[in-house]
Structures are given as structure tokens and as C-alpha cells.
Amino acid sequence: MSSTQVSAMISPETKERLERYARAHGLKKGYLIETALLHHISALESLPADVVVPPRLVVSRQTGEALLERIEKPRKPTAAMKELIDDAAGG
Questions:
Q1: Domain spans of the chain?
Q2: pLDDT means per 10 residues in the chain (91 residues)?
Q3: Is the pTM of this model over 0.85?
Q4: Which whole-number Å values give the CA distances from 53 to 19, 27, 41, 49, 87, in the listed order?
């Protein structure tokens, strides 16, 4: 099989994860990248666009601050939420 070289900029964190995974599993980075790309492209082609969740979500500073506040100070669950959780837990 012939091959061609591509170039892409990735974050240092992604590079470290790639190298760590390749080392741990005895894989060549090129093989791992090609396999991951083929898998990802296949999923994008097979799934409806509205069910594909991007790996990163970009929000405004205001939205980020609101999300952080919700995480740090969560609201008390409503009766409907408690019922849903109980049903999911089999209770």
C-alpha cells in the first residue's frame, strides 16, 4: 500500500497522549493516527450530524462563568429529577 505524508498542528497535550498510548500498546504513531482518522471519518459519515458531539465545546466567558457557578453551587434537584433518578436506579 502506498502512503503519503500529511502535516498537522496539534496541542502538546494531544502529542503527549498520542506518544504515551503508542508506547504503551507497542504501536507506531502513524498507524495509530491513520486508524483513528479512519474510525472518526467513518463515524462522521455514518451518524446523523445532530448526534455527533464535538471533542471541544467553545463558549463565551460569560457562559463559562455561569457553568462554573452551576458546578460549584449546584441547584437542589426538583421532584421530577428525583423521580427520574429513582426510576433509572430501579427504585
A1: 12-48+56-88
A2: 90 97 97 96 95 89 96 94 90 66
A3: no
A4: 25, 27, 14, 9, 26
